[in-house]
UniProtKB/TrEMBL annotation:
It comes from the Bacteria. D-ribulose 5-phosphate binds at residues 9-10, 66-70, 99, 109, 132, 136. It comes from Riemerella columbipharyngis. The active site is at 65 (proton acceptor), 98 (proton donor). Keywords: Isomerase. Pfam families: LacAB_rpiB (PF02502). GO terms for biological process: D-allose catabolic process; pentose-phosphate shunt, non-oxidative branch. Gene3D superfamilies: Sugar-phosphate isomerase, RpiB/LacA/LacB (3.40.1400.10). PANTHER family: DNA DAMAGE-REPAIR_TOLERATION PROTEIN DRT102 (PTHR30345:SF0), RIBOSE-5-PHOSPHATE ISOMERASE B (PTHR30345). This is Ribose 5-phosphate isomerase B.
């Protein structure tokens, strides 16, 4: 079964709860917080979620904040995380096909919840193409 880590800051809380409810019908979801719309520091929730994807405890991670940038930047500090900021399904598909992204970041302030669900489903259900993309992905965490 596909296991998904999900985390957010206060701006992404409503979206996290919506995605968690929708996605839990098909996937196992591990919620790393936050658990309210009170102001928080997103790295406190992103790093544990990223650790769980890095360790293999979870297959993928979904992160949500206002712009998507903060959570994406935090996750990508982890050597074996490839977190893609996506605001449309086509970007989610390409991030999986070409970059073998294992975490998805989304901007709650710029997309509708229904679109966030479509993006998440596309991300989860798109396979890495490998081939010529494999050597490029291997070079991402080379330093």
């Amino acid at each position: 079964m596909i296991k998904i880590a999900i985390a957010c800051d206060h701006a992404g809380f409503e979206y996290k709860e919506y995605l968690k409810k929708q996605l839990s019908e098909k996937y196992e979801i591990q919620d790393f917080g936050t658990h309210s719309s009170d102001s928080v520091d997103y790295p406190d929730f992103v790093h544990p979620a990223a650790n769980s994807v890095e360790s293999g405890e979870n297959t993928f991670g979904i992160l949500i904040c206002g712009s998507g940038q903060g959570v994406q930047l935090s996750a990508n500090k982890h050597k074996n995380i490839r977190c893609a900021l996506c605001w449309m399904p086509e970007l989610a598909a390409l991030s999986r096909q070409h970059n073998n992204a294992n975490m998805l970041a989304m901007p709650a302030r710029f997309i509708a919840k229904e679109l966030a669900l479509e993006i998440a489903e596309t991300f989860i259900n798109t396979n890495f193409e490998g081939g010529r993309h494999e050597r490029r992905v291997e070079k991402i965490s080379a330093c």
